[in-house]
Design a protein that fits this description.
The protein is an alpha+beta fold. The protein folds into 5 domains: about 5-100, no CATH class; about 105-235; about 235-410, no CATH class; about 415-500, no CATH class; about 505-610, TATA-Binding Protein (2-Layer Sandwich). About 20% of the residues lie in helices and about 35% in strands. It has 8 helices and 36 strands. The strands form 9 sheets. A 6-stranded antiparallel β-sheet has the order 31-32-36-35-34-33, with helices on one face. Strands 1, 2, 5, 6 and 9 form a 5-stranded antiparallel β-sheet that branches. Strands 24, 25, 26, 27 and 28 form a 5-stranded antiparallel β-sheet that branches. A hairpin with a 7-residue loop joins strand 11 and strand 12. Helix 1 (about 5-30) runs antiparallel to helix 2 and helix 2 (about 40-70) runs antiparallel to helix 3. The longest helix is centred in the first third of the chain and has 30 residues, at about 40-70.
């Protein structure tokens, strides 16, 4: 055989190695849960495919030269041996990768959750939680007496019940691997004295769908902690909750943690919900008119829902959401009307946040200190307070389960990220911030939820002063404007003639894992003044830095706080684009920023920093 034939054999085997290694690498990316973000999985597959190409070329050339030196040389024989060597190498590497990977077992084609119930000794009380954090169930894969890998799921202490004088708490966690022994434990430490080895095989059988006995067995079981378990396919309910006549079943595939850096982690789930009204399954038939603008098919029948919320102000009512993707979909109101279920279309909507509350109470309007309810769990918080809630196309009155339709007006340039600034005393009319006409001047859009009529109220520089639009709230609205009833019903919003300018105030931005306090229309000198304020009020220790640095750091009780200046000063600069910010690194406990904001706002109200602001 010639070297040309050997080269051709190498290229042919390289092509086989490229395809085989790419196929195995694609499976391995799933086995090892490589993230698709930033192309991590794709880069891995391409790299392994190229490596398979190189290995195939080498195997093909070596095999062809060996065949050439032996009896009966031929290109076909060389290709056979080369491809056999290439596929063998790929099979060995792929097999080893599969054996070492944590791949979730399946039963009847479904991945599995492990449902666990923990039972306390007779006469024992549940441990009092040290904080408001959630309890967690951890499933570990143990090898050689050591936990090698683990997954966490919720332990629902709110579902605790008593049976024969003993407390029982249910929980669940994903069965994430078929390797190793199963060990369950509870977090935070101290809830349960020790963990338990679970006699669940790597590949559970149908018999494991039933509850096990209470374990460990023994004569002293009543005086000791015990548990039982079963596996639940991911298409079956893992948790059942009740709200009046409704039964809500959570059908979860996986659980995960939501951590905001400022509070204890909470669980979220990739889940859907099935609902029963007494003994009857709840289904919704959607019409073509209800699908407009939602990204949904023209008509559909729903037997499971993407999100469910309880309505605190209504009797026996739920809000459900169905959507093709996060942030899109339609919402329905479910109301028990005695013997029948009343289903009413509300609006196109997202599940988080569902809607904006219509309120004139600054306390209700203020950003929540805690993040919104995580996905995949029954929402008991959003609508806990009875009142009016603005959706994209409607207003829902949870006190009466009444829906007021509102057609969207695309000519209104409403600032969607700012909640309505206030509602009239009769709850019929509300005001929103937006831009007027073709300019950038701010206006108030005042809308009647009964007639749908909208009026526009101008905002002057006197009303804004040193305020940034993001800092406006109901207290600002009631200071500068007043609601006046109209003869034909409804209300108009008019400016107060005798209103004195409000003192400047900062804006506290609250994200799940970040807080920043900003003072707008600020001069650079305000940053120096604020650092001096922190030294006097919080015994802060300034860190070295230069005046033209974007941010200067101070230490307060050993924690680093940054004070930054954004914008420019001098000829041609725009004071509306300047601000001084106080913030801490994302992912840390940033509640100190909220304390600083309250102190600085109090100082701003006295005029202490007027000289460092553009007025």
């Amino acid at each position: 055989m010639s070297w040309l034939s050997s080269t051709l054999a190498g290229l042919a085997c390289g092509t086989v190695g490229l395809l085989a290694a790419g196929w195995v690498a694609n499976m391995a990316a799933n086995w090892y849960a490589f993230s698709p973000r930033e192309g991590e999985a794709g880069y891995f597959v391409v790299l392994m495919a190229l490596l398979g190409f190189v290995v195939g070329i080498v195997a093909g050339i070596v095999a062809s030269r060996v065949v050439a030196a032996g009896p009966s040389p031929g290109l076909g024989k060389a290709l056979g041996f080369g491809q056999l060597a290439t596929l063998g190498a790929v099979a060995v590497v792929g097999g080893a990768a599969r054996l070492l990977a944590d791949v979730a077992p399946k039963l009847n084609g479904q991945t599995l959750l492990l449902a666990v119930e923990l039972r306390w000794p007779i006469g024992s009380m549940l441990p009092a939680p040290a904080d408001t954090g959630e309890w967690w169930l951890r499933l570990s894969a143990a090898s050689g007496g050591r936990a090698r890998a683990s997954a966490k799921g919720p332990l629902w202490r709110e579902d605790a019940r008593q049976e024969s004088g003993r407390w029982v708490v249910p929980g669940a966690v994903e069965v994430f691997t078929s390797r190793g022994q199963r060990l369950i434990s509870v977090e935070p430490p101290g809830i349960v004295p020790a963990g338990f080895m679970v006699p669940l095989p790597g590949y559970p059988k149908a018999k494991h769908l039933e509850w096990s006995e209470w374990l460990p067995k023994g004569d002293g079981q009543q005086q000791a902690m015990s548990y039982r378990f079963r596996v639940v396919p991911s298409d079956q309910p893992i948790r059942v909750e009740r709200a009046g006549p409704f039964t809500i079943s959570t059908i979860a595939q996986t659980f995960s943690e939501v951590a905001d850096g400022n509070a204890s982690p909470r669980y979220s789930a990739r889940a859907r919900f099935a609902i029963r009204l007494r003994d009857t399954p709840v289904t919704i038939e959607r019409t073509a008119g209800e699908a407009a603008g939602s990204g949904q098919p023209a008509s559909a029948r729903y037997e499971a829902f993407d999100a469910v919320a309880l309505l605190g102000g209504a009797q026996s009512s739920l809000l459900v959401q169905v959507g093709p993707a996060p942030g899109e979909g339609v919402c329905y109101l479910l109301r028990d009307d005695g013997d029948t279920l009343v289903t009413q279309y509300v609006s196109s909507c997202a599940s988080a946040p569902w809607a904006q509350q219509l309120t004139s109470d600054p306390a209700d309007f203020a950003p929540a200190s805690t993040p919104p309810e995580p996905e995949g769990r029954l929402d008991r918080a959003t609508f806990a307070a009875a009142g009016l809630f603005l959706f994209r196309d409607a207003v829902l009155d949870t006190r009466t389960s009444t829906v007021h339709k509102l057609a969207r007006d695309e000519t209104q340039r409403v600032l969607e990220n700012i909640p309505p600034l206030g509602v009239s005393p009769d709850g019929r009319t509300f005001a929103r911030l937006g831009y007027g006409g073709d300019g950038d001047d701010h206006v108030l859009y005042v809308r009647d939820i009964v007639t749908g009529a909208t009026s526009v109220v101008p905002i002057t520089n006197t009303h804004l002063g040193a305020y940034e639009y993001a800092t406006l709230d109901p207290s600002w609205l009631t200071h500068y404007f007043v609601w006046r009833p109209e003869l034909g019903g409804g209300n108009s919003l008019v400016a107060r003639r005798d209103a004195v300018p409000l003192p400047p105030r900062g804006y506290l931005q609250v994200d799940p894992d970040f807080r920043e306090y900003r003072i707008y229309r600020a001069k650079r000198a305000l940053r120096t003044a604020l650092i001096d304020f922190l030294v006097a009020e919080f015994q802060a220790e300034p860190a070295p830095g230069k005046e033209d640095d974007f941010s200067r750091d101070v230490l307060i009780d050993g924690r680093s706080v940054s004070v930054s200046f954004s914008g420019s000063e001098g000829e041609g600069s725009n004071p509306d684009e300047t601000y001084v910010g106080v913030w801490m690194e994302r992912g840390t406990d940033t509640r100190l920023v909220e304390t600083i904001a309250k102190r600085v706002d109090a100082a701003l109200a006295t005029g202490q920093f007027n000289a460092q602001l553009y007025r």
